[in-house]
Structures are given as structure tokens and as C-alpha cells.
């Protein structure tokens, strides 16, 4: 499969849309990959995607075309991401979860249940010599905080990076699952914890970006491979004036729109990066883009489902979703199998390019904060910690620097505390000794 597949989906008209505009729709199919879109000014434009799922498409077809190739890759050690994008009420959660992950009828089952079944089927059919471990996590990004949906007490988790997992959510609950039924039960538990609200457009609107993360490790003799699969059900973009959001709902919508525009900026930067020389990709501008960093830019196969309403009443929002999908189609990343050697090569490449190309730039920009020795120390610490960063990005270097210094400071604080305890203990022993001497 190409490393990025972008599809458009038009859900059936809902009753409100039908009562406003009858059966009229703003699209006219050309074939299974292209269509004519009529905007609110009746202007027509043609769109083309890897596949278009028109109203009445089967959930199974979306799975076969969009998701199955991604999970095949994950089992071979190539990371994968399946993302649903679109306006509130456009059908993202329905495509991902179906009416329910556990007991939907076969026809309505969403991507998630099908992915879980498909994953365990591939594992079952593989040779018996290979040992598989599947771990599952579920998080949501709500108001820019990462919450663990398996343990709500963890409500502000940090995103970190290491050489085994790439980008990961530090301290997140990981559930080891051995079959499909067990995985779906866990997922259903996590889904019950999601932040859901009501918008004018959707009675059960997702107010957070939800991520279902599968970490699949396989071991054959001495070779270890691992693949990460992230399914992302994004919160819907909405126009505040249209949905008449107020108070908390308005604050939520602002945060959602902000992180979705950060996603748009990353996609724009990646599109430019694939056309010209790599430039700065602003992954760190939001939690969403940071978690998706290695899914969008690097060693990954990504499937994007752009969900739209077919109704003329939502034409401006659908148009913006379709434009987003069209831009995303131009990203060119090259997936690679996550073998350990590969990671080491990547690390060496990044570190050497950092040392050779960026030292002067970093020094110049961070002049007040760091001197040459600091930069050298940073490089050494980064090698030890296995931290990756974009060598052309002053912000990323700065953030890596802060990461390392805060860790160094906390380990120094620990040492100081231990020293104080030792000194106190010695003082006490000394007093006892002195008292004993006095008595004699
Ligand atoms: N393909 C479909 N077939 C039938 N009903 C659908 C379909 N897609 C969506 N719906 C219905 O439309 C409504 C809104 O869908 P959904 O909750 O998936 O929207 P969403 O894109 O996740 O919105 P939000 O961003 O607000 O979370 C739901 O009631 C859902 O059942
Ligand atoms: Mg939703």
C-alpha cells in the first residue's frame, strides 16, 4: 500500500437535513474515486481521492480498502495510523466504533472491531515460531490534556520519545490482550469514559480526540520487531456561530479547532517538505500533532478518512474537509520496518546531522541560554536518552534541552535529598557517640 491513503466518506442524510433540503445533495459521483462538489454559491469543483465512499457504502468496504492494508503492515513492523477527520456530526465516531464496539450487527460494525478481529486473525494465521504480544492503551486529548481512558486518575500524561516505541504517552495504562473478545471488552470500557457532549449538530458529540493505541511486538529467534497502530477519532471541527456554542462548549470548541489547525499546519509543512528540502514541521504545537508525529511524518502507513455530510446545508464545512484531505494526499513519507538497527541508523543520522549542520544555528539562536559546552553536553545527553528531534528546529532542540535539564535537575535533587538524609543519620550517630563518651 502507498504510505498514505486518503478517502472521502459521505454519510446518509439525517432527518434534519432531509427536512431542510429534501433529498438534495451537494455531490455528483463521477466514479469510485472522483466526484463533482457543488458549494453554497453553486460553484462546482472536482475532487479525487484514493476511494470515495458514497452514501450507502458498507462499513466492511471501508475496512477492506482503508484499514486492512495498514494492519498488514503493522504486523510486519511498519507503524500505522487510521484517522477519521471531519465536521461535527459527519460520522467519524460512527465509522470508527459503529453503534457499539461489542454487539453491533455484522453490517454496522465499525473500523475498530474489524481492525481488532483482523489483527488477531493475522496473528493466528502466522507461523507458530513467532511469539506475539499485543498491548492496548486508550487516551483522549481533552482541553489539551492527555487522559488515560483506562484509568481516569491519570489525567495529564506527558508525551515522550524513546528508541523502542518512538513517540509514546508516558505512564499510560497498557493492557495485555490475547484475543479479540478481550480487546473489545477493554475498548468498550475505555469508550464509556470518553468526554461526550451535545452540539447543535450532534447529540453525542466527541469533545476530545480519542486514540486507540495498539503496540504489537513479535519475537522470532533473536529478532524482535515491533509495530504501533493508532486509530484516531478526532473531535469535530465546528463553526461556533453555526453551532451556537457557549460557555464550556465554546471553550471546548476553541481548543478542538486550535489543535485541528495545528494538524493542518503540520500537514502543510509536510507537503512542502516532500516537495522541497525538509523544513521545520511544527509537531510540538499541539498534543495531537505531537502524538501523531511518527504516524504522519516518518516510519508509518497512514489512512485518512475524510467524513462529510452530503447535505447542501453543510457544504462549506464539507468543502473544508475535502480540501484538508486533498492537501494531505500530497504528503510523501517513506515507511520503514522498525528493526532495532534501523532505529540506530536513524538516531546516528539525526545526531550527526545535528552536530554538523545545526550547532552554529542553535548556538546563534540560543546564544543567551547555552554556550558551546552546553550544546556538547546536550548532544551527549541526547545520545544517552535516545531523544530524537528535528535538527533544523530551534524549538525542538530547545524543548529537548529543557527535557534533559529538568531530568538532570530532578536527579540532582534526589541525590541532594539522599545526602541530607545521610548527614542527618551521621549527626544523630555522632550525638549518641558523644553522649556515650561523656557518660564514661
Ligand atoms: N454511515 C452512517 N450511517 C448511519 N448513521 C450514521 C452514519 N454516520 C453517522 N451516522 C449518525 O450520525 C450521527 C453523528 O455521527 P457521529 O457521532 O459519528 O459524528 P462525529 O463525526 O463523530 O461528530 P463529533 O465530531 O461531534 O463527535 C450519529 O447519530 C450517527 O449514528
Ligand atoms: Mg465523534
TrEMBL record:
SUPFAM superfamilies: P-loop containing nucleoside triphosphate hydrolases
Residues reported to bind ATP: 86-93
Domain Kinesin motor per the UniProt entry, residue ranges: 3-331
One Pfam entry name: Kinesin
Cellular component terms per the entry's GO annotation: microtubule
Molecular function terms from GO: ATP binding; cytoskeletal motor activity
Membership in a protein family: Belongs to the TRAFAC class myosin-kinesin ATPase superfamily. Kinesin family. KIN-1 subfamily.
PANTHER family: CENTROMERE PROTEIN E, KINESIN-LIKE PROTEIN
Protein name as annotated: Kinesin-like protein
Species this chain originates from: Penstemon smallii
